[in-house]
Design brief:
The complex is a heterodimer of chains A (303) and B (322). With 303 residues, chain A is mainly alpha-helical. Chain A is built from 13 helices and no strands. Chain A has one domain. In chain B, α7 links the parallel β6 and β7. Chain B is elongated and about 80 Å long. Chain B starts with 25 loop residues before the first helix and ends in a 6-residue tail after the last helix. The chains are: A mainly alpha (303), B alpha/beta (322).
Chain lengths: 303, 322
């Protein structure tokens, strides 16, 4: 037996079972179709809008004005938005669902241990995120064919979206272990996602107001935005120096937060997407620790 | 306070207080024992509520040991502690030679647990369900086919191997749950109300299955509300109420120990009937002599009242918890 086959034979039992069950469920296909239809719609709308915007230009110049890059950024933006909408619904029932079905205790008294169960669930949710991303990968290839964007940027966008998806899948599983009921776990995961996306923006606005009230008119610190998944993805998939010509959402965010706004140069000098992923990972790790403590047996109290 | 130290096994009823002075070297203080479960002074408190109070029990290896008690008596709490799910507030235990709190993994290797409710997975066949648990118990993959076939034959579900688990009847699910608890060939099975909700036929089949497992050398700790059923299959029984163990031993020894001896019903010629307590056959003869000769009463019927476990259970428990 080859080592690869042997490795698959020793797959985490929870992951193995989840993949088997998921492959027999219509829910996965429905979700994937939902994602692909919406992303195709976004791709088409951005293409039409960009074409309209460039209609007075020479037809030969149109493609060179960054249509592909703009489409790529909007599709990736929509993809991350939809993933953050889908992932809590998929992952936040991972362990609480076992509890609801009365299957958690028989699983917990096996030799898998809490880490095996928890990370098996994380791997299963992450595998679904990967499946969604791979299924939608051809939509990211369309902008590449139109030109104006490098393969490196597309790959960076893909992998940072994947990493972000895995982090939020982990957060969902952690909430499902920490909160007893599936409804509570799902709700809390959405609350945390909103906190990371909208909440960090609110914090920046409050900081800006406070800074202005104190008579400090310099740019306030943007560090809370490192926790924002869109900012992390912008740092990886955006591009400096696009100016205002067909600028996509990520280049706009990147330029505004990390660029000098004039020469299109990197102001921070740091690998911002890695810092952003690190901040998000730290936040998720806090919940993972809480979740693993909750899964510890024997318990001092019954749930 | 939680203490995981285990003093030498005393006889039931001899323990007064938890002895916190026992040194940490447990093995040195354990007496050689046939008991596969040794529980000492297990107490579990939830705030002001005492779910289990000073629970001390020895379960002999190879026995079918039944625990009887009304709802809320503490059976499931005791089982949860022994099955490595719950920490006792006070007291300690040894299950298959290991401490269920500090050596939970060692206990799980040798113990199979069946909770009172059997949850199932959707879109999974019976064979896959057992394979999944075999993998979770780290049974080598090449042993799965033989293991699954053997278990399904044992619980009479071999024709259902490819059926979806969530389509099985309740009785079948219970049998499958028992098979699941045995995928790693444990020496001890802890079964919490396994027959609840089963129809009479399924109950009889389940009972026969447990007796067959005992013949295979398994020790079975079982709780049930069906007292007659436990009396028929259990070699040992313990009665628990309001978290306190009231009695333990063989069914007959409990009847003898707590049934205030034997009782006889005497009918007289004048149509009256009276009941008397006697200790043994000599007492029976003495009672008859006294009634007929000394009291000069005309006895038309003199019969011993049979005491079963159900009657005794009602007699010794007071219905404190419902």
């Amino acid at each position: 037996m080859s080592s690869i086959a042997a490795r698959f034979q020793n797959l985490n039992p929870v992951l193995d079972r989840e993949l088997r069950q998921r492959s027999r469920s219509a829910k996965s296909v429905v979700m994937m179709s939902f994602l692909l239809v919406l992303l195709t719609g976004v791709l088409y709308l951005v293409f039409i809008a960009t074409e309209q915007n460039n209609r007075f230009q020479d037809p030969l110049d149109r493609l060179s004005t960054g249509v592909g890059a703009t489409m790529f950024e909007w599709v990736l933006f929509a993809e991350l938005f939809l993933l953050l909408l889908i992932i809590p619904g998929v992952s936040a029932s991972a362990i609480s669902g076992e509890r609801d079905r009365q299957t958690l205790i028989p699983l917990q008294i096996t030799l898998m241990g809490r880490n095996g169960i928890f990370f098996g669930k994380v791997a299963a949710s992450s595998a679904f995120v990967l499946l969604l991303l791979v299924a939608s990968a051809p939509l990211l290839a369309v902008p590449y064919l139109l030109g104006g964007i490098s393969l490196f940027r597309i790959l960076m966008g893909f992998f940072v979206t994947l990493a972000t998806g895995v982090l939020y899948a982990t957060l969902g599983v952690a909430c499902s272990a920490f909160f007893r009921r599936t409804q509570t776990a799902t709700l809390m995961t959405y609350v945390l996602v909103v906190f990371m996306t909208v909440g960090t923006l609110v914090i920046i606005v409050i900081m800006q107001i406070l800074s202005t009230l104190n008579g400090d008119f310099d740019d306030p610190s943007v560090w809370p935005l490192y926790a924002n998944p869109f900012v992390g993805l912008a740092a990886a998939a955006g591009e400096f120096g696009r100016g205002f010509n067909n600028v996509g959402p990520f280049s706009g965010i990147k330029e505004g937060l990390f660029g000098d706004n004039f020469g299109g140069q990197d102001r921070s000098g740091r690998p911002d997407f890695l810092i952003s992923l690190g901040v998000q990972a730290t936040f998720v790790a806090f919940w993972v620790i809480l979740a693993l403590r909750k899964l510890k047996l024997p318990k001092a109290e019954v749930d | 306070m939680t203490d995981h130290q285990l003093p030498p096994a005393p006889e039931l009823g001899e323990i007064d207080m938890f002895d916190a002075s026992v040194p940490a070297d447990l093995e040195a203080h354990l007496q050689p024992s046939d008991a596969i479960i040794q529980a000492r002074n297990l107490t579990k408190q939830y705030g002001p509520l005492t779910a289990l109070n000073d629970f001390t029990l020895d379960v002999p290896r190879g026995s079918i040991f039944g625990i009887i008690g009304p709802n809320g008596a503490g059976k499931s709490t005791a089982f949860s502690i022994l099955a490595t799910l719950l920490e006792p507030t006070v007291g300690s235990a040894r299950v298959c030679g290991a401490n269920p709190v500090t050596q939970a993994r060692e206990v799980r290797k040798k113990m199979g647990y069946m909770p009172d409710v059997m949850g199932v997975y959707e879109r999974l066949t019976v064979a896959e369900y057992l394979q999944f648990h075999a993998a979770a118990y780290k049974v080598p993959r090449n042993e799965w086919p033989e293991l699954v076939d053997g278990l399904l034959q044992l619980v009479d579900l071999d024709v259902k191997a490819t059926s979806l688990v969530d389509r099985l009847s309740r009785g079948m699910k219970q049998r499958l749950s028992l098979a699941r608890a045995m995928v790693h060939d444990p020496e001890l099975l802890i079964l919490d109300e396994p027959a609840s909700g089963l129809d009479p036929r399924a109950r009889i089949e389940f009972r026969e299955l447990l007796v067959a497992l005992q013949d295979m050398g398994k020790t079975i700790l079982i709780s049930s509300h069906i007292l007659a059923e436990l009396q028929q299959m259990c070699t040992d029984i313990a009665v628990i109420e309001a978290g306190t163990l009231l009695a333990a031993g063989t069914p007959q020894s409990i009847i003898d120990q707590l049934g205030n001896g034997r009782r006889v019903k005497v009918s007289f010629a004048d149509g009256t009937t009276e009941e008397f307590s006697i200790t043994d056959l000599a007492g029976q003869a003495e009672l008859l002599r006294r009634l007929v000769i000394e009291d000069d009463r005309e006895v038309v019927e003199f019969a011993e009242i049979s005491t079963d476990l159900e009657g005794l259970f009602l007699q010794i428990t007071q219905g404190i918890v419902q």
